[in-house]
């Protein structure tokens, strides 16, 4: 199955399944997984259940008795990508089951592709399994079909996503995630820790903590003993000895209480926070907290308490009603905030989003021009920050080794979305998952180069 190159838009990224040996007569399923890491975790759970029932997993269309397409429905462009993937699977295989976020709109899917076998919504695991059973009946052999304790993973063996909750309680006008995935539902801490322990025992060196709103974890529990359960969960995960990376952290005041765990080295000094904009009027139109000035004070406090902290964020440019003055405020805020890792989206309407009805939509050519100006500034900040690392000794994790060198990541870099550190000399003894020390000797706009020390 085809695979898109890693790009900034995680909702357009495509993951494919690893190959697995097939015994004679064994039913075989293929999977195309679109969307964010949360969807990738859903795909892993589906495949783990199928593998436990005796199905083999095919890495290509022709070797599969049927194909599951796990879709994304966050943006209209992501919906189009999902429809294209479904069409490709139908052409190449012919027997296709659709699941995921776009599955919340079954008529939209069947209107474009009436020959799909079934459509199920997001995280409806049992419905997906029922559809697979109907299309390709299981034929398990309990003496042969063994499943590793860690289950099926679609990431490299040395890192794994750890989903701690589903859904979201925010009401951002540009987003339909709560409509597709529902309100916040946090997993029990013991279940999260048990999964994390199994992953670490299986050789995972880095756990990437994900959800729709990581800092709200556990706040949906009634009668809880702890006001903000994410704080103790982070420390418990940090005791496992792996790199712990926090994603999708909203900047609530209690986030400052995560910073000591970063300063102590329990979790990585890395925060992925979706700020979205900096002008208070734009934030109000988005139905998001409009406190960009206080956010700058929080950032300063985080850096005071943990000087090595790395901040990643994404922003929307060209939101309905955004004036040139409001956009300039965003640029000025970015100058002051000096975020380490920055991405941007050009606003686009999404069916069902309340922002569609806002007045004064920004022309496409203006969005593009603002996007380019924004990314030019973000790139300059990144380049200067990386240049300052030349001569430093840092720890990196090895992701890939080939004949040209080793591709690694620092503690400041999440897989797929951030930069890399490349080692092109003396790398022959390295293997994926190794954690080694390097001295940085060259820097680019987003990447570093170094040598082993």
Automatic annotation (TrEMBL):
<dbReference type="Pfam" id="PF18693">
    <property type="entry name" value="TRAM_2"/>
</dbReference>
<dbReference type="InterPro" id="IPR023404">
    <property type="entry name" value="rSAM_horseshoe"/>
</dbReference>
<dbReference type="GO" id="GO:0006400">
    <property type="term" value="P:tRNA modification"/>
</dbReference>
<feature type="binding site">
    <location>
        <position position="36"/>
    </location>
    <ligand>
        <name>[4Fe-4S] cluster 1</name>
    </ligand>
</feature>
<dbReference type="Pfam" id="PF04055">
    <property type="entry name" value="Radical_SAM"/>
</dbReference>
<feature type="binding site">
    <location>
        <position position="175"/>
    </location>
    <ligand>
        <name>[4Fe-4S] cluster 2</name>
    </ligand>
</feature>
<feature type="binding site">
    <location>
        <position position="101"/>
    </location>
    <ligand>
        <name>[4Fe-4S] cluster 1</name>
    </ligand>
</feature>
<dbReference type="GO" id="GO:0035599">
    <property type="term" value="F:aspartic acid methylthiotransferase activity"/>
</dbReference>
<dbReference type="InterPro" id="IPR012340">
    <property type="entry name" value="NA-bd_OB-fold"/>
</dbReference>
<dbReference type="InterPro" id="IPR002792">
    <property type="entry name" value="TRAM_dom"/>
</dbReference>
<dbReference type="Pfam" id="PF00919">
    <property type="entry name" value="UPF0004"/>
</dbReference>
<comment type="similarity">
    <text>Belongs to the methylthiotransferase family. RimO subfamily.</text>
</comment>
<dbReference type="InterPro" id="IPR007197">
    <property type="entry name" value="rSAM"/>
</dbReference>
<feature type="domain" description="Radical SAM core">
    <location>
        <begin position="154"/>
        <end position="384"/>
    </location>
</feature>
<feature type="binding site">
    <location>
        <position position="168"/>
    </location>
    <ligand>
        <name>[4Fe-4S] cluster 2</name>
    </ligand>
</feature>
<dbReference type="GO" id="GO:0005829">
    <property type="term" value="C:cytosol"/>
</dbReference>
<keyword id="KW-0408">Iron</keyword>
<protein>
    <recommendedName>
        <fullName>Ribosomal protein uS12 methylthiotransferase RimO</fullName>
        <ecNumber>2.8.4.4</ecNumber>
    </recommendedName>
</protein>
<feature type="region of interest" description="Disordered">
    <location>
        <begin position="1"/>
        <end position="28"/>
    </location>
</feature>
<keyword id="KW-0689">Ribosomal protein</keyword>
<dbReference type="InterPro" id="IPR005839">
    <property type="entry name" value="Methylthiotransferase"/>
</dbReference>
<dbReference type="InterPro" id="IPR006638">
    <property type="entry name" value="Elp3/MiaA/NifB-like_rSAM"/>
</dbReference>
<dbReference type="GO" id="GO:0005840">
    <property type="term" value="C:ribosome"/>
</dbReference>
<dbReference type="InterPro" id="IPR013848">
    <property type="entry name" value="Methylthiotransferase_N"/>
</dbReference>
<keyword id="KW-0687">Ribonucleoprotein</keyword>
<dbReference type="GO" id="GO:0046872">
    <property type="term" value="F:metal ion binding"/>
</dbReference>
<keyword id="KW-0963">Cytoplasm</keyword>
<comment type="function">
    <text>Catalyzes the methylthiolation of an aspartic acid residue of ribosomal protein uS12.</text>
</comment>
<dbReference type="InterPro" id="IPR058240">
    <property type="entry name" value="rSAM_sf"/>
</dbReference>
<feature type="binding site">
    <location>
        <position position="172"/>
    </location>
    <ligand>
        <name>[4Fe-4S] cluster 2</name>
    </ligand>
</feature>
<keyword id="KW-0808">Transferase</keyword>
<keyword id="KW-0949">S-adenosyl-L-methionine</keyword>
<feature type="binding site">
    <location>
        <position position="72"/>
    </location>
    <ligand>
        <name>[4Fe-4S] cluster 1</name>
    </ligand>
</feature>
<keyword id="KW-0479">Metal-binding</keyword>
<dbReference type="GO" id="GO:0103039">
    <property type="term" value="F:protein methylthiotransferase activity"/>
</dbReference>
<dbReference type="GO" id="GO:0051539">
    <property type="term" value="F:4 iron, 4 sulfur cluster binding"/>
</dbReference>
<dbReference type="InterPro" id="IPR005840">
    <property type="entry name" value="Ribosomal_uS12_MeSTrfase_RimO"/>
</dbReference>
<dbReference type="InterPro" id="IPR038135">
    <property type="entry name" value="Methylthiotransferase_N_sf"/>
</dbReference>
<keyword id="KW-0004">4Fe-4S</keyword>
<keyword id="KW-0411">Iron-sulfur</keyword>
<feature type="domain" description="TRAM">
    <location>
        <begin position="387"/>
        <end position="453"/>
    </location>
</feature>
<feature type="domain" description="MTTase N-terminal">
    <location>
        <begin position="27"/>
        <end position="137"/>
    </location>
</feature>
């Amino acid at each position: 199955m085809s695979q898109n190159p890693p790009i900034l838009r995680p909702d357009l990224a495509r993951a494919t399944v690893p190959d697995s040996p097939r015994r004679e007569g064994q039913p075989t399923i293929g999977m195309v997984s679109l969307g964010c890491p949360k969807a990738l975790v859903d795909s892993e759970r589906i495949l783990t259940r199928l593998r436990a029932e005796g199905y083999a997993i095919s890495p290509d269309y022709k070797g599969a008795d049927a194909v599951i397409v796990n879709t994304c429905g966050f943006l209209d462009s992501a919906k189009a990508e999902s429809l294209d993937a479904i069409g490709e699977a139908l052409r190449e295989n012919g027997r296709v089951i659709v699941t995921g976020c776009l599955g919340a709109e079954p008529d939209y899917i069947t209107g474009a592709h009436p020959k799909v076998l079934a459509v199920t919504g997001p995280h409806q695991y049992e419905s997906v399994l029922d559809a697979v059973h109907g299309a390709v009946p299981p034929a398990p052999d309990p003496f042969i079909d063994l499943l590793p304790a860690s289950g099926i993973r679609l990431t490299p063996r040395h890192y794994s996503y750890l989903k701690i909750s589903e859904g979201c309680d925010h009401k951002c006008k540009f987003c339909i995630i709560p409509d597709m995935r529902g309100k916040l539902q946090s997993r029990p801490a013991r279940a999260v820790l048990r999964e994390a322990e199994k992953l670490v025992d299986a050789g995972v060196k880095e756990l990437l903590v994900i959800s729709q709103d990581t800092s709200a974890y556990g706040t949906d529990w009634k009668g809880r003993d702890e006001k903000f359960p994410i704080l103790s969960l982070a420390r418990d995960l940090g005791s496992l000895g792996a790199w712990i990376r926090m994603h999708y952290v909203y900047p609530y005041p209690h986030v400052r209480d995560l910073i000591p765990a970063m300063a102590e080295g329990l979790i990585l000094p890395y925060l992925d926070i979706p700020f979205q904009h900096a002008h208070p009027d734009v934030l109000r139109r988005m139905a998001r907290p409009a406190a960009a000035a206080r956010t700058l004070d929080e950032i300063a406090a985080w850096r005071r308490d943990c000087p090595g902290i790395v901040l990643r964020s994404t922003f929307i440019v060209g939101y309905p009603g955004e004036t040139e003055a409001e956009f300039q405020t965003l640029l000025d805020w970015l100058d002051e905030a000096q975020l380490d890792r920055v991405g941007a989206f050009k606003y686009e309407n999404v069916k069902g989003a309340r922002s569609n009805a806002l007045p004064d939509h920004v022309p496409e050519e203006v969005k593009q021009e603002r996007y380019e100006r924004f990314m030019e500034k973000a790139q300059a900040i990144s380049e200067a920050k990386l240049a300052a690392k030349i001569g430093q000794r840092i720890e990196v994790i090895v992701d890939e080794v080939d004949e040209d060198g080793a591709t690694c990541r620092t503690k400041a870099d999440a897989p797929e979305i951030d930069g890399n550190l490349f080692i092109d000399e003396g790398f022959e003894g390295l293997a994926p998952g190794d954690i080694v020390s390097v001295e940085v000797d060259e820097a680019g706009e987003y990447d570093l180069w170094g040598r082993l020390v």
